[in-house]
Design a protein that fits this description.
GO biological process, one term: ribosomal small subunit biogenesis
Distance between the termini: 83 Å
Shape: globular
Structural class: alpha/beta
Number of domains: 3
Order of helices and strands: HEEEEEEEEHEHEHEHEEHHHHH
Keywords: Cytoplasm, GTP-binding, Hydrolase, Metal-binding, Nucleotide-binding, Ribosome biogenesis, RNA-binding, rRNA-binding, Zinc
CATH superfamily of the largest domain: P-loop containing nucleotide triphosphate hydrolases
Binding site for GTP: 165-168, 211-219
Region (Disordered): 1-36
Radius of gyration: 27 Å
GO molecular function: GTP binding; GTPase activity; metal ion binding; rRNA binding
């Protein structure tokens, strides 16, 4: 058949005569996912370059390295998460399991890079306590950072505990008095003593530690977990510590419980937290806050002249000190009355 005749033959064909082979991207995909009935539970205790270290059943002696299963997509997996594993969970060298499910979180410690950053970062999941580590000197304490850490704890469902280090260099009385109305547990330690009270507070709990570099956080962790071997550093002449903990990691306490050591924080943004999240941590003010005008930041006059929180103090249902503490936290969240250095936690 000549080329001319062939063209004439093709002209008589229609779409019913043409068989189109579907491309790979158009093939129908099932929405069904494997049930993984044989999965085992574990807690995430470390992460390094796309691999997660997990403790089977929360047992620090049964450690497994795992990767995120493809079906999870970009589901975030952070330290403290409870996950389901399949595959090789023997924990032998060069073996790799797969994380196929992440359980619902009971608490989250979140932060943003600053108060204008819309992207929130989950730092730790499922911690019952947040130990806020602050040095009384070298570097000096910054109440702006303490307030911001308290806001993050209250909003995330963690019980905050204030830990004041280096009491051999300065008195803790002023800081303790500043937070007396919050009924906030305050633990005081010094460099030449063992942190027995802190060990008791952390016993059988999952506790996250946060603090500036140089406040003695890694030194404290090394005392609580003798084989942790966390690197320690010195404070520079300008009052800033060198970052010694570079990755978050969960460490098993000798007598039960876990402590999650986080990298030294230079910024603690609260862009993701709403005022009502903070008020919820003060039950005596919740009902009155619901009567406030829409958009009320609960700061009181002149910012919020119609705020109803003052009525709770007026009728004797709450103390003036509690309201002042609440509004200090709200101001910290809003970035009001803070110097730039305090605001970013540097």
């Amino acid at each position: 058949m000549s080329p001319r005749d062939r063209r004439r033959d093709w002209s008589r064909l229609d779409e019913s005569d043409v068989r189109v082979r579907p491309g790979r991207g158009t093939r129908p995909r099932t929405k069904r996912r494997p049930e993984h009935a044989d999965a085992v539970t574990a807690m995430v205790v470390g992460k390094d370059r796309g691999r997660w270290t997990c403790a089977l059943g929360g047992d620090p002696k049964q450690i497994v390295v795992a990767m995120r299963a493809r079906e999870l997509g970009r589901t975030p997996v952070v330290i403290g998460d409870n996950v389901d594993l399949v595959g090789d969970t023997s924990g032998k060298p060069d073996t790799l399991a797969r994380i196929v499910r992440v359980a619902d979180r009971t608490s989250v410690l979140r932060r943003t890079a600053d108060d204008t950053d819309p992207f929130e970062r989950v730092v730790v999941a499922n911690a019952s306590q947040l130990l806020i580590v602050v040095a009384l000197a070298d570097p000096p304490p910054r109440t702006g950072f303490i307030d911001r850490a308290l806001v993050a704890a209250y909003a995330g469902g963690l019980e905050p505990v204030l830990c004041l280090t280096k009491s051999d260099l300065a008195s803790p009385d002023e800081i303790i008095a500043a937070y007396a109305d919050l009924a906030l547990p305050v633990l005081v330690t010094r460099q030449d003593e063992e942190p027995e009270a802190i060990a008791d507070q952390l016993h059988d709990q999952l506790t996250a530690l946060i603090g500036h570099s140089g406040v003695g956080k890694s030194t404290l962790v090394n005392k609580l977990v003798p084989d942790a071997d966390r690197e320690t550093g010195v404070v520079s002449a300008v009052g800033k510590g060198r970052h010694t903990s570079v990755t978050a990691v969960a460490l098993a306490l000798p007598d039960g419980g876990w402590v999650i050591d986080t990298p030294g924080i230079r910024s603690f943004g609260l862009a993701h937290i709403e005022p009502d999240d903070i008020v919820a941590a003060f039950p005596e003010f919740v009902e009155a806050a619901e009567e406030c005008p829409s958009g009320c930041g609960h700061l009181g006059p002149p910012e919020d002249p119609d705020c109803m929180l003052d009525t709770v103090v007026a009728d004797g249902s709450a103390s003036h000190g509690r309201l002042e503490s609440l509004r200090r936290l709200l101001s910290s969240r809003a970035g009001i009355d803070e110097s730039p250095r305090e605001q970013v936690g540097e």
